[in-house]
């Protein structure tokens, strides 16, 4: 399969073997092409892509370790025809997820105390690219990493763009959810799988905050069952914001599953 950019053939050094792209199932935002042990492996954290502008987030795994703060770009291909066409190239910006002080991971407990670990967890951050998909259906993506020594590696995957989103998009009215709060349950563990549960995140009903016009930070997470390399630190990060913004913003933790 040839890869073209408009009417011009793209130099093979930039193609990086994109010909293995294949279609993803409709249940996932992205599906990886077969990879060889030790090669670059993306971990996609975006659950849904739609026609229009998308925030495409991912981690990168290399030789069993997460790649942090790399020089990364995302190449977008139209793969409807046997000859894949390069549509766009966009940078992927690295965003740190955890608080690191002097090489140590700082974990925030529900009471606000800081607990420093001597060894940082494997999750340091994610890469984010602004991805525009102009039509529904299959697209090919290539994540290209340039190493400090000039070497270039790439990973390929295919994605499906939905014609309309299944989840609320930025700018759409927020659902008036009547989530359970601390006063609704006899044991906070019924609505919070954190250890220990954090009562500060269960004081506000989402519908009430919307009615009052109060800004909200809502975290959908199930800490007890979270095995992902990315989702683990989410509540820790949110807790760091409560001392500074807790009086102005409603912080809400909503479990994504019920026991």
Short précis:
This protein is mostly beta strands. It contains four helices and 16 strands.
Which key phrases capture this entry?
4 helices, 11-stranded mixed β-sheet, Immunoglobulin-like, 2 domains, 259 residues, mainly beta, 3-stranded antiparallel β-sheet
Task: Write up what this structure looks like.
- This protein is mainly beta and 259 residues long.
- It has 2 domains: 3-161, Immunoglobulin-like; 182-254, no CATH class.
- It contains 4 helices and 16 strands.
- Strands 1, 2, 3, 4, 5, 6, 7, 8, 12, 13 and 14 form an 11-stranded mixed beta sheet that branches.
- Strand 9 and strand 10 (104-108) form a beta hairpin.
- It starts with a strand and ends in a 5-residue tail after the last strand.
* Annotation field: number of helices: 4
Question: If you consult CATH, what is the topology of the largest domain?
Answer: Immunoglobulin-like
Summarize the helix and strand pattern as letters: EEHEEEEEEEEEEEEHEHHE
Strand content: 35-45%
In terms of per-residue confidence, which ranges show pLDDT below 50 for 5 or more consecutive residues? 1-28, 32-38
CATH architecture of the largest domain: Sandwich
Number of extended strands: 16
CATH class of the largest domain: Mainly Beta
**Structural class by sheet pairing and helices:** mainly beta
Give the end-to-end Cα distance, rounded to a whole number of Å.
Answer: 49 Å
Q: How confident overall, as mean pLDDT?
A: 78
Layout of helices and strands:
Blueprint lengths: L2 E3 L2 E2 L2 H4 L14 E3 L8 E4 L7 E11 L2 E2 L4 E8 L5 E13 L3 E2 L2 E5 L5 E4 L7 E9 L3 E10 L5 E10 L44 H7 L3 E5 L13 H6 L2 H4 L4 E5 L5
């Amino acid at each position: 399969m040839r890869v073209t950019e408009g009417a011009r053939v793209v130099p093979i050094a930039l193609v990086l073997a994109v010909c293995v792209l294949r279609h993803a199932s409709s249940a996932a935002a992205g599906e990886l092409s077969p990879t060889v042990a030790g090669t670059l492996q993306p971990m996609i954290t975006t659950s849904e892509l739609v026609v229009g502008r998308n925030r495409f987030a991912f981690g990168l795994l290399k030789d069993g370790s997460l790649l942090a703060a790399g020089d990364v770009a995302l190449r977008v291909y139209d793969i409807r025809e046997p000859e894949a066409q390069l549509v766009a190239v966009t940078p992927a910006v690295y965003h740190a997820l955890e608080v690191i002080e002097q090489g140590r991971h700082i974990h925030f407990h529900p009471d606000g105390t800081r607990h420093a670990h001597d060894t940082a967890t494997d999750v340091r951050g994610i890469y984010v690219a602004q991805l525009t998909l102009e039509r529904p259906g299959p697209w090919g993506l290539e994540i290209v990493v340039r190493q400090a020594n000039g070497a270039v590696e790439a990973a390929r995957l295919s994605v499906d763009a939905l014609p309309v989103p299944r989840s609320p998009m930025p700018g759409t009215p927020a659902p008036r959810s009547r989530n359970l709060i601390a006063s609704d349950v006899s044991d906070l563990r019924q609505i919070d799988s954190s250890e220990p549960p954090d009562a500060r995140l269960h004081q506000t009903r989402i519908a009430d905050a919307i009615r009052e016009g109060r800004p909200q930070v809502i975290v959908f997470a199930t800490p007890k069952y979270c095995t992902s390399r990315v989702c683990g630190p989410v509540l820790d990060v949110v807790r760091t914001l409560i001392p500074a913004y807790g009086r102005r913003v409603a912080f809400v933790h909503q479990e994504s599953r019920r026991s």
